[in-house]
Structures are given as structure tokens and as C-alpha cells.
DNA sequence: ACGTCGTTGCACAGCAGTGTGCAACACTGG
DNA sequence: CCAGTGTTGCACACTGCTGTGCAACGACGT
């Protein structure tokens, strides 16, 4: 903190740092308060309120960023012909940010659950559509409706991203295989897909 | 509330009702306070404190019950020869209570996470052991270490129990298939196992 | 030097939840 | 009828977080 020679750099510099740090802090404790976030960001609580009028505002901004990133990755990955190939590409692309945004899964329950759920809705729809496409094309299993199955596969990715082996190249591979398996893709094909991402 | 003619029945009657209702209330909102739980149980906040000195006490008791039930079911199911058969039996047996105790998954984060995590530890170990046994016997896949893989399969069961199709016989079947798939069991065998529970 | 802007420090009001104390009440069994 | 027990209603102190107001400070560009 004291080593930081210059104070303010640009308009959005502090704002961005707060957002970034908020993801980390809330990721470890979804109930963390504004004070905790502020301290972690190296600023005072009052400063956070200067950028985000309320706690909900902060979280909403966070969610909007996550939705934008994931939706972009998802639509780009969904361009692939086969649904299983598209899913594998999605996991590979989304992996770098999955761990950062894992808090949103926990944040869907409690307090702001409603707001977050509605913001996250579009992503859920995209996911369900992709899975539905796979089920229609006999690529994915039909033991569950597309809506639930997509949540299951997506949960698998986030659970692995949340575990200790989040870092390292083995994480992406494991997440791809695990999510494809739950989607009903045979192990051999899942393994093959996890290598050509 | 007014229809309840007699007041107190036995020593544990109110206590048990509080515990039961607390699971429901906390299931919908893990941040629910003692007042909310008390009202839902048809008593006053003060009464809850009469049975449980603190909020942590309530939740700990809840967790201990869950651990006891799940551990019993798990050890009984694990008696089966093959690991995949054991898992299928476990899911079938644990299903009736999985939905009730789903809140514990959410409660592991935030505030009492530490306490709950330690209480839930033994169950995690049992689960990991069973999965490890399956991996050693070439029944389960090895794309993930037993510890993570067991959490994945167990999460799948709870996610399905938490979805709309929690009620109905189709839920157990879906949960069994989905969890077996993620464990690496081929779809055909998983489907067969899900019928003979 | 001057005004601007982001930041700081502090004070404050408000709210919600926790946990406690205590007197009053209702029901039960002897 | 009376003592015991569980419940109630209310009061209270305490804590922690939210959100606001405001004066001061420091860096920056002109």
C-alpha cells in the first residue's frame, strides 16, 4: 500500500480494481461486506460507495460482466457443427474465467438471488439450447430435460474449477471430460474431445 | 396455528418441529434468521433460544442429524460387492432425505462453513472411499482423483434433488444415472443399475 | 497559483439480527 | 388446588453492516 507512489491514475482504474478484488473476496466469502472488499482493494469503504451506490450495484455490475463474457464465449463456441465439439470448446474457452466467477453460483441463493438469477438467465438459456441441440442430434443423453442437464454439466465445470486442481492444465481436461460424461458422451469420445479443444 | 388445541405435548415435540421446519426455511434461504425459523415453526423467537442457545447450535444439530443419517445409509449401501451397485443403492436410499438436507451444501460457504465442513468431513471420507474402491476395481473412471470425483457425483445428486423434478419417481432414476455417468460408468450399465435399486 | 477530481477520515443515522432477562401465562400431573 | 414445566411477550444491550454527509487532503492539468 505504501509502496504505491502515485494516487489516482485514471477514472476507471480504482473502479476496475475494486471489481476485480470483489470477485476474489466474495469468492471466498459470499457474505463479505463492503468494508472487507474495500480493504482488500486498498481503499476505504467510503470510496467504494463513491463508485457503486449500493452493494447490490456492485454485485449487479459484477454479474453483468460475467454474463457478457460467458455469453460471448458461449455463442462463439456454439458455432461448431456438433454439439459435443461445441461443448468441449466452450469449456476450454470459459475455463480461464470460470474460477473467477464461481462466486455467482453461490450468490444465486440468498439476498440478491432474485436479481442475479434474472441476469444469469440468458446464459442459462444459451446453455440449455446447446444441450437441447445435442439431445436432438442423439449426441447427448436424454435421461434429463435439457434445462436440468445443462445445469448439471455446468455445475461440474464450476465444481472442478473450485477444487484445488483449478490451476494447471489438467483442470481444463478434467472439467471437459467430466461435463461430457454427465451429458452422456461415451468416455472414449469425451477423452478425445478433451484433447482437441 | 390457532387450530392447534393443546399447547405443549412432550419435551422434544417442539424441538423436533423446530429442527424440521428449520431445514425447510434454511433450504429456501440459508441466511434466514432465528425469528424467521421460529415463526415458521409456529413459536416465538424466544422459544427457539430455549432449545438452542445459539444459531450455531441449531445448525450444528441439524448437521449432526444429516451426517448420522447419511453415514448410516452410506455404510449400509457400501456393503455391496461392486462399487457401482453400491453407489446406485446409496443414491436410492439417500434420495428421500437428499432434498431435505440440500441446504447443507449451501451452508458450507459463509459464516459457519468451517464448523459444518468439519462435521460433514466423515461423510466426504466415506464417499471418497467408495469411489476409490470403484476406481481401483476399474469400475469407475480415473479422470479425476477420488476426492473430487465423489464430490462431483454427490453434487449431481443434490442438484437434481434441488430441481423441480425432486418429487416423483423419475428423480431417483435420473440422479442415479447422472451420478453414475459422471463416475465413468457406461450409459447402458448406468441405466440398468438405476432400475434395480 | 488555481480549480478539479478522486480519495480519505470521521461522524452519524438506521436497520437487522443475536442473545439475555424476567414476569406472566397455560397446561399437565400429583 | 398446586407445583412444575414449556411457552409467551416484551424489554434490553450489543454487534455489524449499510448508506450518507462533509470537510480536508493530495495529485494533476492549465
What does this protein look like?
2 copies of one chain form a homodimer. Chain A has helices at 13-28, 34-40, 45-51, 55-77, 83-98, 103-107, 113-136, 146-162, 169-182, 187-195. With 197 residues, the first copy, chain A, is an all-alpha fold. Chain A is 70% helix and 0% strand. The first copy, chain A, starts with 12 loop residues before the first helix and ends with a helix. Residues 1-8 of chain A have low confidence and may be disordered. Chain A binds chain B through residues 29-31, 106, 109-111, 141, 143-145, 148-149, 151-152, 155-156, 159-160, 163, 165, 173-174, 177-178, 181-182, 184, 186-187, 191, and chain B through 29-31, 106, 109-111, 141, 143-145, 148-149, 151-152, 155-156, 159-160, 163, 165, 173-174, 177-178, 181-182, 184, 186-187, 191. The structure holds a DNA duplex (30 and 30 nucleotides).
Topology (elements, then pairings):
The structure is a homodimer of 197-residue chains.
Chain A: H1 13-28, H2 34-40, H3 45-51, H4 55-77, H5 83-98, H6 103-107, H7 113-136, H8 146-162, H9 169-182, H10 187-195
Helix pairs in contact in A: 1-2, 2-3, 4-5, 4-7, 5-7, 5-9, 7-8, 8-9, 9-10
The structure holds a DNA duplex (30 and 30 nucleotides).
Tally of individual helices of chain A: 10
Work out the count of structural domains of chain A. 2
Question: Regarding CATH, which class of the largest domain in chain A?
Answer: Mainly Alpha
The helix/strand order of chain A is HHHHHHHHHH
Rg of chain A (C-alpha, Å): 19 Å
**Second rung of CATH, namely the architecture of the largest domain in chain A:** Orthogonal Bundle
CATH-defined topology of the largest domain in chain A: Tetracycline Repressor, domain 2
General form of chain A: elongated
The percentage helix of chain A is: over 70%
